[in-house]
Each structure stands twice: as C-alpha cells, then as structure tokens.
Amino acid sequence: MGSRFQYAMTLHIIIFLQIAQLVTGQFKIIPPDNPVIGVIGKGVILPCQLEAKTTPERLFVQWIFTGKSQRIDVTTYDGKNKQNPISEDKAYQGRTNFFQTEFNKGNVSLHLKNVMLSDEGKYTCSIFLENWYDEVVVDLNVAAKGDETSIFLDGHVGQGIGLTCKSQGWFPEPEVVWLDSKGQTRKEKVITQRTKTSSGIFDVVTSMNLEPGSDKEVSCRIVNNLLNTACESRVLISGE
Length: 240
Description:
Elements: H1 2-26, E1 27-30, E2 36-39, E3 44-46, E4 49-52, E5 60-66, E6 71-78, E7 86-88, E8 96-98, E9 110-112, E10 121-128, E11 133-143, E12 150-157, E13 160-170, E14 175-179, E15 190-196, E16 202-210, E17 217-224, E18 229-236
Parallel strand pairs: 2-11
Antiparallel strand pairs: 1-4, 3-9, 5-6, 5-10, 6-7, 8-9, 10-11, 12-13, 13-16, 14-17, 15-16, 17-18
C-alpha cells in the first residue's frame, strides 16, 4: 500500500513538473538591453515584450514604479474586465497608455506621457496568466536639454574683457566648456555656477576673462552627457 502511494505521489509530481515546464516554455518576457532615457516634457516608451505563440485574451498586466522613497501601482490592465480593463493611479492620471491593439503580438509596453523629474526610477512590468507569472524591471533615467546658450560681454575687467554665458533648464548637471577658434579648451580661468531650481533642474551661469593677446574667437558649450547633446554659442571679439 505504501509503495503504491509513493508511486502515485511521484507520478503526480512528475506530471505537475512537466505541466509547469510546458507552461514556462510557452511564455517568456524579453528584458530591455539598456536603461530607458526620458526627456522632461516629452513621452517615452517603457518596453515590455511577451514572447509567446499566442497571447491569452485574459491577460493581466501591472506596471509598478519604485522610486527613492515610494512605490506606486502606476497602471494595470485586466483582460477579464471587459467593461473597464484599465485602472490608473492618481499620480499618473491621464499620462499612461497601453498598446492594446498589439497585445496579440505580446507588446505590453507602457507609453508614459509628459515625463517629469519625479518619474525617474525603476518600473516593474508584471504579467499574470492563468498558470504563469513573470516580471521584468525597466530603469528610467530622466534628462533635459536646456535653452540655447547666450554669451554676454561684461565689459573690461582689468586689461581683459569679461564674458558670461547663460542657459536654463538642464538635467542632470551639465558639463561646461569654453573653446577657442580651433575647438580647443581655453586655458583661461572659468567660474561656473550650476543652480538647482525648485523643480530640480539646473540653470547655468559661467564666466571667464579674455586677456589681451588671446584667441579672440570664443565659444561656450554646455553639454548633457546623458542625452549626448549640447548647446553652443560663439562670439568673435574684434578690435583692440
């Protein structure tokens, strides 16, 4: 009796494992290769791709945000609820979209509109099916390219000429470079202030003195290394 019971239990476990392997093999989430970069004020797509031969209609997808000190259930899609399948947290009200017409292709990515600085963090895409569950984490880095730079002449400073370059609206803290006519970094002393505003972005004011006999073509370049983009202004100081 005992051996028959053990045999039945062993057979049950084997069948259960085979079913689990079959279900597991049917579905797979493809993880993103790199962090996603979202530009403040614009939209961004948080990728989540389900690899499957067929995608069940009763799909349940949940996106969860984890920041420095909070966790938010951003939005969910419940395929069992035909009348109102989507629910959205108040903090993201009107800012998220699923690509529902592409669910049959396994695309459960999230379109996040009007990116804010507070959106930076980790987003977990969780997919629930009847006998299967998995999740993937998408890192969202937030960035902003500031306004065009402007160079102002401050007048004479000693025997030289003072120059100031300004720009607003950068994130993260940008790099500042003063260049000569050959595109080389200038040797003059530079004073730069990066001021963090109440919204968390940075305004930049940078100054230098152009000494007599120096290359009179001056460029101010402000660089966002995360976006790999820059703003630059150039002036040519003529005369003595």
